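Hi support team,

I submitted a single chain yesterday and got back a structure, but I'm not sure I'm reading the token output correctly. Could someone confirm the output below corresponds to the sequence I sent? I've pasted both exactly as they appear in my results page.

Thanks,
R.
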Amino acid sequence: MKCVNVLNEEVKEVEPITIISDKKTYLVSIPHGGEFFPIKFLDKLNPNFNLTRNIDHYTTKLYKNLNSFNISFNLTSDFINLSRNRVVDYSQPIHLKTDPIHPLKVMGEALLKEEYSKEDEEEIYKIYEEYHKLISNTLEMLKRENSFALMLDGHSLYSIGPENTPDEGQERADFVVGTLNDNSAHPEIINAFCIKLGELANLNSMSVVKNKPYKGGYNTQKYSNPSEDIHVIQLEVNKKQYMDEKTLEIKTESVNLINKLIEEAMNAAFEKAKEIYFGV
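Hi R., thanks for writing in. Yes, this is the structure output for that exact sequence:
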């Protein structure tokens, strides 16, 4: 698929999904880190819409090469938001009250100046369904391998809550763990993750909170099912810790540090899961 990188305007052929499958421990999903927009759909866009605003910048690096089966999306979440339901649930918080191809307005501007055709939507949603099928199939594979499946849904967030968020204008913690109020995974798995992450974050003068401002989005809600041995944790990393939010310049040393912290926290969660299921 021929695409343009919305950060640097590079044009190249891009596969929508990248899979790294050399591990059969836990799954890491990175749905919002993509930087590419398909060229064939550019003529549908409102030229005033900021295509860089909704990216979870550099999350493919933050969550890269963990001890995991890794699935990441290379297209922007403005093109397809994999963390939204195709049928809008208006009981959800404001930032979730949208479908996958109609993001909320940014600074009053809508993404599309012209709606996609029916054929366009079918093509776009085929990619959406492919990603979610991969998630479902991988979780089932991990259950067969381990008797349980553990998934991390990896994101980032702005240091100050932007418009259309539950905490607009407020400062945010460095790590936000989403657990659906501790219902997305076995409580001991959640505790193992949070305790290890909290210890390591504290050593590096960083903070960790649970479920504020995000308790867990569509993917966490869709896939978590502890009673059926599927455990999901959502993690948001504060962008100020690893990049300049104005220039978008990456802080490589900080990315590498945070990557290690996340890996250790997930390893702790995985070991706790093995202890719960096998007593080891």
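A quick pointer for reading it: The beta strands are 2-5, 11-13, 17-20, 26-30, 36-38, 68-73, 149-157, 175-178, 208-210, 230-238. Let us know if anything else looks off.

Best,
Support desk
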